[in-house]
Amino acid sequence: MGRITETVKHLIIINALFWIATLTIGANGQVFNDLFALHFPSNPLFKPWQVFTHMFMHASYGPGGSIYFQHILFNMFALWMFGSPVEQTFGRKKFIFFYISAGLGAALISLGVSFIQYNSGLTSLHELGFTTEQIQQSFVNGVPPPGIVDESFNTLQGMYNITVTTMVGASGAIMGVLVAFGMLFPESKLMLIFLPIPIKAKFFIPAIIGLDLFSALTGVSIFSPNNTAYVAHLGGAFIGFIMMWYWKKNQFNKNRWN
């Protein structure tokens, strides 16, 4: 796992360039985030290409405007560690196809869950007599519709959070790569930085996915920041598993795409 492969190297470079550009162009990364981060489709800043470009974006600023490098550092380390052996097995073209598919799948599944949550809230507010126009106007002017209280206000706030929250990062694609690594090299021993005990990949990777599932269901963050897109992680892992299962079933994984 020591040698970095060509595609992984190029992906790391592209991600680094996007991160640096986000830091240096415009104020607080706003220009690049507006253009390339994934917005909810009802947000006026949403563009179709963001479903693809978000996976090359990473958080650049932390609280107080400080430079935030942990997000890209962790993701690129994981991409090097797990992506290189997967690319060596798959070949360049097959790895690119797999990586992009996992990233796109993660984005679409995350958007799908957000749509369900948003429409559920919309239905609840409609039942209370609020119109779609009133709700959308409240998002624009920041003032809740007259008569909205308690639980209905929480519903409105949740819908607003969905419309303004953006998704960035290669995590969904990398989770797919993680699954591929676990299925290709199940006996490989891995170690967490905070738990220096060798754990086989066939146990380590399901445990990571399990933690993401726990956080997605409970909202409790264990190792990641509170705004981590856990549904996207699970989506990337799911797409990665489906692709690997299909390729193994059809003996496709034995053939490299060079």
Summarize the structure in words:
The protein has 258 residues and is mainly alpha-helical. Helices cover 64% and strands 4% of the residues. The protein is built from ten helices and two strands; from the N terminus they run H-H-H-H-H-H-H-H-E-E-H-H. It has a two-stranded antiparallel sheet. Helix 8 (171-184) packs antiparallel against helix 9. The relative contact order is 0.13. The mean pLDDT is 88.
Distance between the termini: 20 Å
What class, by secondary structure content?
Answer: mainly alpha
Count of separate DSSP helical elements: 10
Q: Tell me what portion of residues adopts beta-strand conformation.
A: under 5%
Provide the spatial order of strands within the biggest beta sheet.
1-2
Low-confidence stretches: none
Overall geometry comes to: globular
Q: How many strands in all?
A: 2
Largest sheet: 2 strands, antiparallel
Helix content: 55-70%
Please, what is the oligomeric state?
Answer: single chain
Radius of gyration over C-alpha positions, nearest whole angstrom: 20 Å
In round numbers, the mean pLDDT is 88
SSE string, helix = H, strand = E? HHHHHHHHEEHH
Looking at this protein, list some descriptive labels.
258 residues; 2 strands
Helices and strands in order:
Elements: H1 6-24, H2 30-36, H3 50-53, H4 70-90, H5 92-127, H6 132-141, H7 150-164, H8 171-184, E1 189-192, E2 195-200, H9 201-218, H10 230-249
Antiparallel strand pairs: 1-2
Helix pairs in contact: 1-4, 4-5, 4-8, 5-7, 5-8, 5-10, 8-9, 8-10, 9-10
